[in-house]
Amino acid sequence: MKKRVYLVDDELLALEELKVLLLPYEDLEIVGFSDRVEQAILDCNSLKPDLIFLDINMPGKDGFEFLQSLEEVKEVIFVTAYDQYAIKAFEVNALDYLLKPLNPKRLTEAIQRFGSKFQAVENQVEERLSADKKIFIKDGEKCHFVPISKIYLLESVGNYVRVFYENQQPLLHKSLTYLEQKLPEDLFFRANRQFMFNLDFISQIEPYFNSTLLIVMKSGHKIDLSQRQSAKFREITGV
Predict the structure, then answer these.
(1) Nearest to residue 58, comparing CAs of 89, 75, 30, 81?
(2) Which ranges in 48-164 belong to alpha helices (H)?
(3) From CA 202, how far away is CA 216, in angstroms rounded?
(4) What is the β-pairing status of strands 195-198 and 151-157?
(5) Please, what are the domains in the chain?
(6) pLDDT tens digits along 138-167
């Protein structure tokens, strides 16, 4: 199966160069590219690529602000002429950080790393768990055996997910995307990059800005949905 790739750079020449450099990698499919950040945001929220090659210094929004505007990010490889952002790049869990002009050997290493991680995720994803099952969470010295039906909120925290159930908030060493593929889809709704919630624990649904929705949980948590996710939520729930 081909991995879907999107390219973002405010320099058209850089985009063209990257497209040429990626040609030998037959398992990668470039599904889109843009030199305009706002267009790239719309495209990525629609296409949900497996991998984004992303410049950092761009007009309007930099690469980090771009990522914050996305509903979901799977993997990112930064491609930039500046090395001072490397630490920050890895703080947002970037897969790699490549300096311009691109070194073909480093590009190969980054793509191989992506391929290995992609395959590992594919191998992990099995059939969904049902609501009557339990998941085991070891958080430090504490162990939790958590009924799925009692989980009311999941929050992405770096390489972990904070699992909210009853009065507990243990950290699980998995990604939110992985849990989205494992938990019952008729019970859990992916709100955005940060949150997924249990439909049974909604207290209120309020209209928000520009036809979006604000979800108020019984716990008091308030989660705003993007226009796209608001439309999807309405379609699923009939709200």
Answers:
(1) 81
(2) 63-68, 86-91, 104-124
(3) 6
(4) antiparallel
(5) 3-124 (3.40.50.2300), 134-237 (2.40.50.1020)
(6) 888 788 889 999 999 999 998 899 999 999
